[in-house]
């Protein structure tokens, strides 16, 4: 037996295939979903005011990256992006949205927008900070 460093892209694709094959056997109800990458920016006069990146996988949407320019925070830019992605999740029949954020990245913003804290790591990534795991259930019509 040997552990060796291998190419990230090749390894992740291979592992994803193996995990998907395993899932098809164990939980066949999850096999009808296609993964979809999402990526949006909001711009004004050629300036990027914010952006959001994520992936729809199975029956949920995972927000991977979310940024709002400092000079536009508190002006509804983030809310517009979040609502846009939530609408996309509804159209894709997602049941929930999940994300991670840090204490210095406005977890209160997500709470105000209907997300709930489902986990928290205190003293991470620094002693006075916290790492949050959040979700929001989506009402599928």
TrEMBL record:
CDD domains (alphabetical): NAT_SF (cd04301)
Ranges for domain N-acetyltransferase: 1-139
Alphabetized GO MF terms: acyltransferase activity, transferring groups other than amino-acyl groups
Superkingdom classification of source: Bacteria
Pfam families tied to this protein: Acetyltransf_1 (PF00583)
Alphabetical list of InterPro entries matching this protein: Acyl_CoA_acyltransferase, GNAT_dom, YpeA/RimI_acetyltransf
PROSITE patterns xrefs: GNAT (PS51186)
Alphabetic keyword roster: Acyltransferase, Transferase
Protein's recorded name: N-acetyltransferase domain-containing protein
């Amino acid at each position: 037996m040997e552990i060796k460093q291998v190419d990230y892209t090749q390894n992740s694709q291979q592992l994803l295939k193996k995990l998907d094959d395993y899932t098809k056997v164990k939980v066949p109800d999850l096999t009808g979903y296609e993964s979809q990458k999402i990526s949006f920016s909001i711009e004004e006069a050629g300036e990027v005011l914010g952006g959001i990146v994520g992936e729809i996988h199975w029956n949920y949407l995972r927000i991977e990256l979310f940024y709002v320019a400092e000079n536009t925070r508190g002006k509804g830019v983030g809310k517009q992006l979040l609502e846009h992605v939530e609408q996309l999740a509804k159209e894709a029949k997602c049941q929930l949205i999940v994300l991670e954020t840090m204490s210095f990245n406005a977890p209160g913003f997500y709470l105000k927008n209907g997300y709930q804290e489902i986990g928290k790591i205190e003293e991470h990534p620094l002693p006075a900070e916290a790492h949050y795991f959040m979700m929001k259930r989506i009402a599928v019509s």
